[in-house]
Each structure stands twice: as C-alpha cells, then as structure tokens.
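ok so dumb question maybe but i'm new to this and my supervisor (M.) told me to 'just get the structure for LCAP aminopeptidase' and walked off. so i did the thing. is this what she meant?? sequence i used:
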Amino acid sequence: EDFLTLIFKAMMKDALNSSHPVSSAVQSSEQIEEMFDALSYIKGASLLLMLKHYLTKDVFQAGIEVYLHNHSYGTAQSGDLWDSMNEITNGTLDVKKMMETWIVHKGFPLVTVVRKGKTISVQQEKFLYRVEPENWTSDASYLWHIPLTYITNRCNFTHCTNAYLLHQKKGT
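this is what came out, is it supposed to look like this??
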C-alpha cells in the first residue's frame, strides 16, 4: 500500500511538463544531484516491476544474475542492465530498445483501449496532468514501447497470460 502511494505521487509529478527523464546526459555535478530525486527512484522501481512482470520472474531474475556477474567488482553504464536482459531473452525481445523509451522520455503514456466485438484496439499518447504554459514543450514525437499483458475468457490469470508490445501509436 505504501509503495502504491509513492508510485501515484511520483506519477503526479511525472505527469507535469516540468518533469525530467530518469536518464539523461549531464555536464556538472549539480545536474547529477538533480537527477537523483524521489521521482527517478520510484519511477525506476516501477519500470523494473513492469519489466519483471512482462519478462516473467524467472527470466528477469536470470537477467539480473547475468548483469551482476558481468559487472561484479567493476562499473556499469545505463544500458548494461538492458544488455544483460537481452542476453537472457536470446534476441526474442529487444529489452534495451523497449526500456530506453521509458527512461529517456519524461512522463508516461496514456493507453486507450477500445473493444469492438472480438477486436481490441489500443492507442497511446503522452499523458499530461496539467499543462504549465511557461514549461510547455511539444511531445508529439514521444513513443513508448508499452508491454501489455491480458487474459481471455479461455484461460485464467495464473495459467494463460498473453503479452503484446505496443510500439507504435496504435495497435490492434
């Protein structure tokens, strides 16, 4: 419950145009300090939970183990964790490409789902809670790779979860 409260508080901040990406290039130590705020940590934790759910617990854990093994007693760069996950998925999913859309964009997407008969249409757009005119920038080019999971009436939640990666503005 406490974690959900933190997530929703972070989402409120991240939904403002004055938000910042989880990862960005920095030029000074002051900029580094600005990046390590509650928003970055909570959004980062949420993104890892999203990835764990999409990849499954076992695949995610194996990717973490590869990452820790490859970088023990050394340094790591921002893409190294995603590279380790790619290693585990054997190229079936480009985790790095998917996750970079989440860490380099500020904010998050709003996904609209419409059902017509047996067809489900999904569409993404950047969600803005409140437009602040002094900080307004056009984010029309924002595009996330959104892992969606769903079940059908032919199975139950624990045994038959399907996955779909929305990597365009619209999908069916």
